[in-house]
Amino acid sequence: MVGTGRAGVDDVTTFLAAELGSVVVSLVVGAFVWSAAVFVAVQGAAGRPAGPLQGLRFAARRAVPLMGWWLLAMLLVAIGTIMLVVPGLVLTVLFYGSLLGVVVVERRGIGRSIELSMGRFWPTAGRLVVAGLVWQLVAVAADRIGGGFTDGVVGALAQAGLMLVVAQLLTGVAVVTYAELRSHDGGCTTSTLAEELGVHRQP
């Protein structure tokens, strides 16, 4: 019994370590990809198309702050959800609709994200609900497609590829939502975003 108990503790520890490692890797990779995606999107909108390498070079300057603010946002959402659920949902709308753009473009934080999203809370919530439903539908489809392959590796790759595509689409939703929020915040234009982002200083 003692041996079984120790094995159980080891299994739980290994599982938690693996989960934590997965979250950390996802956060680090995601911060670079999201920052690069914002850069490329703004460059394109400003009439100066940029490639992935340019985006990643830019992301090196924004990824670390984005990781910090995103961790704090996830913590607050988790606390709000545990408390009464509704606060967690409200914070999800306030953060997910604008935090990416606020950190990457304006180099500001959660306070600014709340300020932007509060002014257009319900339209932002509606857009995020639709995006979330799409994510869930694709996740279910990807799971079934991945499970349909006899080769587990091929199935996992097919599933990951499909989720990568929808992840990019959701990043686009976040960028468009942020731009829309900024347009209602003093009539921000693409040129304004480009100047704040430093697009004109890029080679």
A few lines on this structure:
The protein is mainly alpha-helical and 203 residues long. The protein has nine helices and no strands.
Please characterize this protein's 3D structure:
By secondary structure, the chain is an all-alpha fold. The chain has one domain. The chain contains 9 helices and no strands. The chain is globular and about 55 Å long.
Task: Give the SSE layout.
Blueprint: H1 2-45, H2 52-59, H3 63-84, H4 86-96, H5 99-106, H6 110-119, H7 121-147, H8 152-183, H9 190-197
Helix pairs in contact: 1-2, 1-3, 1-5, 1-8, 1-9, 3-4, 3-5, 4-6, 5-8, 7-8
Total of DSSP H or I helical runs spanning 4+ residues: 9
Q: What is the domain total for the residues?
A: 1
Let me know the number of strands: 0
Strand content: under 5%
- What composes the largest sheet? none
Give the integer mean of the pLDDT values: 83
Low-confidence segments, given as residue ranges, are: none
User: Which class of secondary structure composition applies to the elements?
Assistant: mainly alpha
Give the ordered list of helices and strands: HHHHHHHHH
Shape: globular
* Beginning-to-end CA distance, first to last residue: 65 Å
Spatial extent as radius of gyration: 19 Å
- How much helix is in the residues? over 70%
